[in-house]
Amino acid sequence: MPESTQQDNDHALYPHATDFEGRPPPPKEGYSWDQITAAIDSNSLHGLRRTDKGQWEYEVWQHQIDRAKYGNIGRYIALTVLHWPDLLDPAETTQTQSGSHANESALTLQERYRDIAPRLTLRLNHYPFPVQESIQYFVLWATRDISVEDERERLDRYLEEQFVGQRGAALEEGQGQQNERQPLSAELLPAKPGKKKEWIWFVNPVELRSVATVHHLHVFVRDVDV
Q1: Please, are residues 92 and 85 in contact by the beta-carbon 8 Å criterion?
Q2: What element of type H or E holds 200?
Q3: How many helices (H) does the chain have, and how many strands (E)?
Q4: Which GO BP annotation is one of this protein's (predicted)?
């Protein structure tokens, strides 16, 4: 069957509102690591897309959200999926003092952003575009944009803790070596023997974001040789 006919049939079976014109369907085995990195490097993220069936399922799920109660999909995700108390950033709601004396002025918002961590939640993407079996596809949700340069050190440290483990693990009693680091992500598949985790991430441009009210990064993880 010609590819164009198959695409028409898929869209007829799974009608959705997203225009995939000029965006070829994903490979049957899912996007490879090289294809994802190429899309990131060439700024052609629009080329990465769900299948028609996957897009249809995502839109069906969206339509089931009570907009009168939650207002938008981002607030629904924050409150019911991520279990955040609200969409506010801790740095914007904490009036930290710059010292121990009560009469000292409060920290500026920029200083609070530096000192107070944002709310971060890493979850597997439940409605992803397809990737090869060797890749896990996560979404990192945040209460601020942690892709910017000022937040990059915090982001790198957080992802390392999730996929490798925390640095400076407690020393075993009577030994001079650190305990083996354990990843914090409960959804991360363990690295195979002789392997370690490698990850990449990107932030969608505004026009590709289906959840615009919550900051988030797309994160991909795989095993590589030690």
Answers
A1: no
A2: strand 195-202
A3: 8, 4
A4: N-acetylglucosamine metabolic process
CB within 8 Å of 164: residues ≥ 6 apart: 181, 183, 196, 197
Question: Using CA atoms, how far apart are residues 100 and 203, in angstroms rounded to an integer?
Answer: 39
**CA dist list (Å): 34 to 19, 90, 129, 185:** 25, 37, 15, 24
What are the residue boundaries of the structural domains of the chain, listed by start?
3-93+106-166+182-225
Q: Rounded to two decimals, what is the model's pTM?
A: 0.86
List pLDDT tens digits, range 114-168: 999 999 999 999 999 999 999 999 999 999 999 999 999 999 999 999 999 998 7
CB atoms near residue 70 (< 10 Å): 15
3-state DSSP call for residue 99?
Answer: coil
Residue 163: partners with Cβ closer than 8 Å, 6 or more residues away: 183, 185, 188, 197, 199, 221
Sheet holding 215-225, edge to edge: 120-124, 136-142, 215-225, 195-202
